[in-house]
Structure formats: structure tokens, C-alpha cells
Design goal:
By secondary structure, the protein is an alpha/beta fold. The chain has a single domain (18-253), classed as 3-Layer(aba) Sandwich (Rossmann fold). The chain has helices at residues 16-20, 48-63, 95-111, 127-140, 158-161, 164-169, 175-184, 220-223, 237-260, and strands at 29-34, 70-72, 116-121, 145-150. Strands 2-1-3-4 form a 4-stranded parallel beta sheet. Helix 3 packs across helix 4. The N and C termini lie far apart (49 Å). The relative contact order is 0.17.
Length: 268
């Protein structure tokens, strides 16, 4: 049941009496891995984002200082994936449903005495939703600290391993995700089906971009016939191993930072 998460760090393996007896529950870090079940081209399985989130946090928890109390919930495999719904197999929640699910999960944790919750997300289509729900929860529960975080946001080896084109445009099922999946779930990667595809007719001599400070709205079929945005044909296990190790190292530090974190308080 725990998959890549260490069993002693897997929240569902606790009993209610374990939790009742847990000292300083307000300092315990609870992580909710979040991904999606959505198309990732013809060469990758639907589970890519969930596999990345769960593997990264599982290995980070395994390497975390044993003195830091931290646990992972089971991954939330469904997300807001409607940008991919024109491709068969994609399962999507609405933003409203996702907000409700996260809110009720976190409120349940709050009732149990926990005050530090990490929403560890690996799906690029929902960071804004998580930021909204995190702030709304903190408004209702001022002593609750919610961290809406993206798995790729920590320093990692991508800039050293990927081309400039891939770093800018390879945002879905390209070199990075395919290399990671070759490291994490090699038996589920079909490299013979991998094909490169980059978006065409993007604005030129313009500040407008797919993502960034001045984005335009898009769905995947606007940009790709295969569902791929990037070049998975150059993905390797070695790059995946390096990417994974660098992400894990970053998340070990972030978990320790969250354990120490104190909510800022304005001076009277």
C-alpha cells in the first residue's frame, strides 16, 4: 500500500491511538502528494505526475533526519486535468471539486491536531488551485500552515541536463518527465513510441508565453497532436537518476525548513 513511501512514514499505517499519543502534533509535517491521471503522449503511462510526486517525497522522507516527525498521506491521483481531456484516458476533476477534496482532507487533519500540511504537487495544471485553497484554509484557521508547493520548484539538475529549447517548451512528456519515468518505472515507458513535438506558431517578438508572467490560455490539443510538448526521444535513465537525486535532495531540505517554520506575525 505504501509504494515508494517508507512504511514508518506512511500516515495510514498509524492507529488513532498512535496519533492521540503523538507529542507536539502542531510540529508534525503532513505531506499530501498530488498528481493526475492524464495523457502523457503515446510513450508514457497516465500516472506520470502521481508517480513523480510519490517517488520524490518517498525518497525524501527516507533520507530525512529521523528526529523530524513527518508523514505522507496516500497520493491524490486525480487532479484538474481538463487541458488534456481531448485525449482518451484523461480523468479530471473540476477546480471546484479539487478545492472541496483538499479542503476536507486538510480540515480532517486539523481536527486531529496537525498544523503543518504540504500540498506536494507534480501536475502543472493545478498550482493556482492549490494556492487558492491554501490561503482560504489559513484564513479560516489562522494557526494552520498550508504549503502549496510544486515538486519541480526546488533547485535541481534540469538546467545542466536539458537543452534550452527543452527547458522553455518541454513542459509535458518531454525529456525531463520521460527520463524520470525511465528511472522510476522503466517497464512502463515505451521508448519505441516516443516522438518529439514542440508547439508551433507561438507569439514572436512578444512578451506573451504559454507559461510565465504573461500567459495565454491554452489546451493541449492547441499545441500538440501527440499530447507531447518536448523531445522524449533523447531521454535516458542516467538523466532520470540525476534529476531524481537532485529533487530528493531539495525536498529533504524543504521538509526540514517546514518543520522549523514559524508563521510570520506582524508586530503590534
Amino acid at each position: 500500500m505504501h509504494g515508494p513511501i517508507p512504511p514508518h512514514r506512511f500516515f495510514p499505517y498509524l492507529t488513532w491511538t498512535d496519533i492521540e499519543a503523538m507529542p507536539h502534533r502542531d510540529r508534525v509535517v503532513i505531506v499530501q502528494p498530488m498528481g493526475a491521471i492524464e495523457q502523457h503522449g503515446p510513450h508514457l503511462p497516465l500516472v506520470v505526475d502521481s508517480a513523480i510526486a510519490t517517488t520524490v517525497i518517498g525518497q525524501a522522507l527516507d533520507q530525512l533526519d529521523p528526529a523530524i516527525p513527518a508523514y505522507s498521506l496516500p497520493p491524490l491521483d486525480y487532479g484538474k486535468s481538463n487541458e488534456h481531456w481531448h485525449f482518451p484516458g484523461t480523468i479530471t476533476l473540476s477546480a471546484e471539486t479539487l478545492i472541496r477534496v483538499i479542503t476536507e482532507v486538510v480540515e480532517s487533519l486539523y481536527r486531529s491536531g496537525f498544523r503543518r500540511v504540504v500540498l506536494l504537487n507534480a501536475h502543472g495544471g493545478q498550482p493556482q488551485v492549490l494556492e487558492i485553497v491554501a490561503r482560504d484554509l489559513h484564513l479560516v484557521y489562522p494557526d494552520l500552515m498550508v504549503f502549496p508547493l510544486f515538486v519541480w520548484a526546488v533547485p535541481n539538475a534540469a538546467a545542466e541536463l536539458l537543452t534550452a529549447q527543452e527547458l522553455e517548451l518541454g513542459i509535458h512528456a518531454g525529456d525531463a518527465e520521460t527520463s524520470l519515468m525511465r528511472s522510476i518505472l522503466p517497464d512502463q515507458v515505451r521508448m519505441d513510441q516516443a516522438r518529439a513535438e514542440f508547439p508551433q506558431d507561438l507569439p514572436t517578438e512578444s512578451w506573451l508565453t504559454m507559461e510565465g508572467a504573461l500567459p495565454f490560455a491554452w489546451v493541449t490539443r492547441d499545441l500538440s497532436r501527440s499530447g507531447v510538448l518536448g523531445d522524449p526521444t533523447v531521454a535516458t535513465v542516467e538523466k532520470g537518476d540525476q534529476l531524481l537525486a537532485s529533487l530528493v535532495q531539495g525536498w529533504v531540505k524543504v521538509l526540514a525548513d517546514i518543520h522549523r517554520f514559524q508563521q510570520p506575525c506582524a508586530q503590534p
